[in-house]
Amino acid sequence: MIELKLPPFGESITEVVIAKWLKKDGDTVKIDEVVAEVETDKATMELTATAAGTLKIVVAEGTATTIGTVVAHIAEAQGATNTPNITTPQTTINTQKSMAGEKIMMTVPPVGESINEVTVGNWTKKDGDFVKLDETICEIESDKATFEVTAKANGTLKIIAQKGTTLKIGDQICEITVTEAVAQTPATQTPATTTTTTTANTNYAQGHASPAAGKILSEKGIATEEVKGTGKDGRITKEDALNAQKTTPQVQTPTPVAQTPTAAPATTGGNRGTRREKMTSLRKTVARRLVAVKNETAMLTTFNEVDMKPIMDLRAKYKESFQKKHEIGLGFMSFFVKACCIALKEFPAVNAYIEGEEIVFNDYVDMSIAVSAPKGLVVPVIRNAESMNFSEIEKAIVTLATKAKENKLSIPEMTGGTFTITNGGVFGSMLSTPIINAPQSAILGMHNIVERAVVQNGEVVVRPIMYVALSYDHRIIDGRESVGFLVRVKQLLEDPARMLLAV
Q1: Cβ-count burial of 55 within 10 angstroms (0-12 exposed, 13-18 middle, 19+ buried)?
Q2: End-to-end CA gap in the chain
Q3: What is the pLDDT, as a whole number, of residue 78?
Q4: DSSP 8-state class, residue 410
Q5: Which of 37, 57, 446, 460 could be disulfide-bonded to 25 (CB atoms 3.0-4.6 Å)?
Q6: What is the spatial distance between Cα 214 and Cα 137, in angstroms, rounded to a whole number?
Q7: Domains of the chain, CATH where assigned
C-alpha cells in the first residue's frame, strides 16, 4: 500500500484545500496520472499518483490539510490490500488507551519558512470543553495566512494562551488531558478481526465533523450531535454542514410561528432562500491583502483621460500585417505596458517599494497584469517588460492569461512584480480607484472606451476617450511624480510614435 502525501507546493505554503477529486474511491490510477486538484492561498495545483494501482481516498473534498498529510492510499496490483486497513485503526486505539489520563501539551506548529511569530485568533472551544482527535480548536494568524490548530487527542481542553496573545513557534498554546471514557469503548473491541476493527473505527467517526464541516457548523451555532453524517462511517462532511441550515430552523421554531400570524403575510411569493459558501484560500488571501494595503499605506488616486484614436488608427492600419508576421493579435494592452515601462524609467519612485526604513528602487520592470480567473483575481508577471517589443509583450500576455483561465499558473509566475496594470474596462467600468498590489507602490487602472465630445483646436469633436487612474502610495510617491507619470503615459498613448523614437 503506497501512501499519497501532499508534496511541498512552495515556500511559506503549509496548508492546502482538497478542491476536487478527479478520480473516485476504488478507481484504478496510473503512475503520474492527475488524481486531484488542490488549492493554495495563491493558486490551484494538480496532485498526481505516485504509483499505479487502486485509489483509496482518505481526505474528502473541501478539507483543509497540511503539507505532508496522507490524503489517499494506492493499493498496488500485486496484492496486500487488507493489511493497512486493519492495522491503522488498531494502532490508534491502543495509543489512545495507553495515554488515558495523561496530559498532552500542544505547541504552536511550524507554519512556514520565515514565519517565527503568530497571534492566537478565535478559540472554537472553551476552557474545560471536551475535544475530539483532529477537531479544530482554535485559529492562529501569521502575517501571511490564518491556520487551524487541531486537537492531538480526545480529552479535556485547558487553554493556556488567550485570544490575541502573540506566540513564537514552539510556544505552548493549550493542554489536553486524555480521558479514559473515550478510550475504554474501543479498547474492549481490539481482537484482531476485521469486523471488530471496523466497529471501533465506526464509533470514532460517527458524528465526527471534518475540519471544513466543523467550522461551518460552528459559524451557524449548530452542534455536531444535531447533524447526521453521510460520510464514511457516519462522518459529517462539508455538504452535511451546508445542508444543516435548511433543517435546523424548522425544528426550533414551530410554536412561535403559530403565535405570530401577522408576520407570515409579509412574504411576496418569491424565493427568499439563502446559502453559504466557504471562502476559498485564494479569496481569503485576496481579501486579507487588500485590507492590509488599505490600512498600511497612504493610498491616493489621480486621474486623467486619454484620446485613444491614434492607437485605434494605428491598430487598424497594421493589425493584419502584424498578425501575419508575428502570429499574434495586436491589442491595447501592449501599448499600455510599453508606455508604462518608458514612464517608469523617467519616474523611478513609481517603480520602487518601501522595505523597513529604506526605499528599494528597481532598475527593471516586472509588469504585473491583473487577470480575472475562474477562482478569483490573479496577477501574473511579465519579466523584464522594458526590454520587450510589442509582439513579445502580446505573446507573454496571451500565455499568462491562458494559464490563468485554466488554473495552471505557477507560484513563480505570480510573484515579484514591480508595477501593476488592471483593466476594468473589459467589464464596462467607466472609472475606478484600483487598490495597490503590495509591496508595490502604484497601480494603473484602465477603463472602457466611450465616444465623448471634447474640444480640440477650438472645435468640439467626438473622440474615443478612456479614463485612466493611478493609485499610489503617498509615503514614497509625491503628487508631482504621480501626476507627471500619468501625464507621460497619456502623452505616449496619444502619440504612439514617441514610443518607437524614445522621445
Answers
A1: buried
A2: 68
A3: 57
A4: -
A5: 57
A6: 10
A7: 2-81 (2.40.50.100), 95-252 (2.40.50.100), 281-501 (3.30.559.10)
What would the mean pLDDT of 375-386 be, rounded to a whole number? Answer: 89
Cα–Cα distance measured from residue 25 to residue 55, given in angstroms and rounded to the nearest whole number:
6
Active site residue 73: no
- How are beta strands 442-446 and 419-423 bridged, if at all? parallel
Confidence (pLDDT) at 206: 64
Residues sharing a CB contact under 8 Å with residue 255, sequence separation 6 or more, in sequence order: none
- pTM comes to 0.52
- Contacts of residues 175-178 at CB distance under 8 Å and 24 or more positions apart, as own/partner, are 175/103, 175/104, 175/105, 175/106, 176/103, 176/104, 176/106, 176/131, 176/151, 176/152, 177/101, 177/102, 177/103, 177/104, 178/96, 178/99, 178/100, 178/101, 178/102, 178/103, 178/104, 178/153, 178/154
**Mean pLDDT lowest for which of 64-73, 174-183, 356-365?**
174-183
Residue 465 three-state SS: strand
pLDDT at 500: 83
CA distance 176 to 187: 20
Cell of 445: 487602472
CA angle centred on 203, ends 201 and 208, rounded to 5°: 95
Is residue 208 part of the annotated active site? The answer reads no
Q: Which residue has the cell 432562500?
A: 273
Q: How far is CA 347 from CA 106, 435, 479, in A?
A: 52, 20, 12
Q: Which helix (H) or strand (E) holds 92?
A: helix 83-98
Residue from 25, 32, 313, 474 carrying the catalytic annotation: 474
Q: Which of 25, 127, 313, 478 is catalytic?
A: 478
* Banded pLDDT at 194 (limits 50, 70, 90): very low
Q: Locate cell 502610495: which residue?
A: 473
